[in-house]
Amino acid sequence: MTIPSLALGSGTKTVQYTAPQDPLQPSTLLFYLNGRKALLTQPPPDLTLLQYIRSIGLTGSKLGCGEGGCGACTVLVSSYDLATQAIRHIPVNACLSPLASVQGKHVITIEALGTSANPHPVQERIAQMHGSQCGFCTPGIVMSMYALLRTNPRPTEEEIEEAFDGNLCRCTGYRPILDAAKTFSVEKTGVCCKSGKGADNGGKGCCMDEGSRAQDPHMEEAKYQRGGGGCCKDTSASGGAPELIPSKVQKIDSSFQYQPYDPSRELIFPPALILLAKEGGHGCTWYHPHSLLDAMRLRKLHPTARIIAGNTEVGVEMRAKRSREEISIYLSADAIPGLGKIDVDESQGLVSFGGNLTLDRFSHHLFTTVVNWPAYEREHYMVLHEALKYFAGRQIRSVATLAGNLATASPISDLSPVWMALDAHVELGWLDITIHKKWVPIRDFFLGYRKTLLNPAQELILSFRIRQKSRKGEYVRTYKVSRRKDDDIALVNAAVSLKMDEKTGTISSSYVAYGGMAPVPLKAEAMSDVCVGRTVDEVSKELAIFLDDFSGINLGTPGGMPSYRLVLAVSLYHRLLAQCLSSHLSYFPEHSSVRIPHDLTQGLEARVSRGAQSYDSSGAEKEDAHGEAVAHLAAMKQTCGEAEYLDDQTPPIE
Ligand SMILES: Cc1cc2nc3c(=O)[nH]c(=O)nc-3n(C[C@H](O)[C@H](O)[C@H](O)COP(=O)(O)OP(=O)(O)OC[C@H]3O[C@@H](n4cnc5c(N)ncnc54)[C@H](O)[C@@H]3O)c2cc1C
Ligand code: FES
Ligand code: FES
């Protein structure tokens, strides 16, 4: 295999793996693993991060499902973001992360946190507070909590629960895990502890306010980067460790005194990697373009190469098919800022989102941007945010991208119906002599099962575009039905957009899109049309069942269960319509005397969970453990990744 002559820009990693007899220099991969430099020569391009770390004896990270669903393999990946000059920490599923994707990054595994003799506070508290039983999920649980603390050392209880949405535990029932994790929690008052003023009350804003945190949810707080700025929670003038508000969570065993958590004692991000990020650095094991032009050139030169972004689809597919890609072109917004850029065209009222923006960054942007907008302008942003709320787990959302989701063309994508309801457009780009770009309505994008207008041999997805703000009388809603609320794919999902005339209360346009009802995300024509031209009052009175759109659904429909899906589809429509009407009637009560029942308009929100364990200790003998909450002997080894399972003794070779 020879390296093609290709005039690519500086920084682009163009070195391919070469056969041993190839006279060209072999490629190298440079990253840091648990604080130590790792330089690998010609690692196989299809090796996952998990296979690699386990093969070198770091067996604390477990192989559970192998497809991003259980979180047992969670590790922390830190990188330096050139644009913001800040360090990002993301929890990732090592089972899906290509080893090559950690070029220039710092990987932290469970082994780096602490040992059973000297555990990290997360490891200690989860062990001592009975958060592990068989212990197989435990390293992943510890790493998810650790990842949260690295970006947010003062999380709320809600933030802690969210941090575990990509982890499954079969034994504990989660309550003891959450109890232990919530010992790190604080209550956020929104009032600056120094000035006594919240940001909306004339204060400058406090480190505890959401809005004053970095725009990226994974950015390390400036305070915790060495030499960073101060925090009003500091107890010392020199910016020492913040005093944590003691937990309100009851410990079962009150004799257990846990060590305090001091973020300044965490492993630092290797300064050498900051230099590497700034200067370009070593060749990578696969194509890693650092400019859009280079990405397009590579696309043209290698029409059969697979584009890889978050690898959350491709990784699962490769594993299922036991296949590998000969040539991969890795697209990341870190290397090609244009693919993660958010542009607002004020004159047209449009906003575009870079194609390979990760879902977590996208969601965070949506949520933080609308804070000062009037409620009626937020519909477009909030419906996208809603679609991402129950989209996979955090480890997946940290790396998965918008383009990857659309290109996959899954009939149950959570985003596709929303894009369709919003009449979003996708920008495709390709290269012949010059660069060409075109905008395609996503409503026309899907041609058949996993077939789209994208020509994968030539084109790249560059960005997505929507009208930024909704107007009065416009409503867009989405809902997903799955077997469980968090971290599950949809059975059926839907999005509805409605436009109502402010004066007459007449519905002037409507679009209803479903996922899970056909091989492609589908516009429900009859449902879309039925309301148009009618008044809010009429429609409110006739929330009826419309089944025509799905007469074609049968046992052969992907996923089966046609009658169940039909029922879900109809009820979803009613629910979303009711939400839109109810919102409208709150602005224009004169449009109908019908009052939509509250139950129909409320979403199912997961509340912060509470649990307690009680047992009779009256008959306990002093000399034995009856009636006492004693952590089991293996707990600390499990939280520190030292417990050995059969799987760990002979690392699997696939
Ligand atoms: C555990 C788990 C849970 C999941 N849960 C959900 C869920 O709840 N809802 C849901 O909708 N999906 C879910 N998914 C699916 C998946 O996460 C998404 O589809 C994701 O957005 C894919 O993005 P990616 O960047 O990882 O794509 P990749 O796997 O990297 O790529 C997917 C496809 O997109 C192509 N591609 C990527 N970028 C470009 C580009 N710029 N131009 C052209 N082609 C491109 C690739 O070539 C490939 O064919 C889940 C997946 C897993 C593993
Ligand atoms: S092993 Fe289950 S998510 Fe990686
Ligand atoms: S799976 Fe969580 S302790 Fe067994």
Automatic annotation (TrEMBL):
Gene3D superfamilies per UniProt: 3.10.20.30, 3.30.465.10, [2Fe-2S]-binding domain, CO dehydrogenase flavoprotein, C-terminal domain, Uridine Diphospho-n-acetylenolpyruvylglucosamine Reductase, domain 2
Keywords of the record: 2Fe-2S, FAD, Flavoprotein, Iron, Iron-sulfur, Metal-binding, Oxidoreductase
Name of the protein: Xanthine dehydrogenase
Pfam families reported in the protein's UniProt record: CO_deh_flav_C, FAD_binding_5, Fer2, Fer2_2
Location of the 2Fe-2S ferredoxin-type domain: 27-113
Single Gene Ontology MF annotation: FAD binding
Domain FAD-binding PCMH-type: 279-471
Origin superkingdom: Eukaryota
